[in-house]
Design brief:
2 domains, about 90 residues, single chain, alpha+beta, Zinc-binding dehydrogenase, two-stranded parallel ribbon, 2 strands
């Protein structure tokens, strides 16, 4: 158990979603998967019959060198980016 600072989460616009499948029957889990595929189909019409992992990609906001890790952290802390910040190593 632990405590969450809900004000800090709200300030950072963090969304918490909880799901448990342990209490669900196999039929319920199958229906959840069908509903997910149905509900996201409008957002990926070009790949209606493909695996979700083939069509959904993260949004990359910035690509920075590893040496700019401090800058990346500051961008995240300041909520300056929408998407992922990628740090290149090497």
């Amino acid at each position: 158990e632990g405590l969450l600072d809900m004000e800090a989460l709200a300030f950072k616009r963090i969304e918490l979603v909880g799901v448990t499948f342990r209490t669900r029957t196999p039929q319920e889990r199958a229906e959840i998967v069908r509903a997910l595929r149905r509900d996201i189909a409008p957002f990926r019409p070009h790949a209606a019959h493909h695996d979700i992992h083939e069509t959904l990609r993260p949004v990359v906001a910035r690509v920075l060198p590893w040496s700019a890790a401090d800058q990346a952290y500051q961008l995240m802390s300041d909520n300056e980016v929408l998407g992922k910040i990628v740090l290149e190593v090497g």
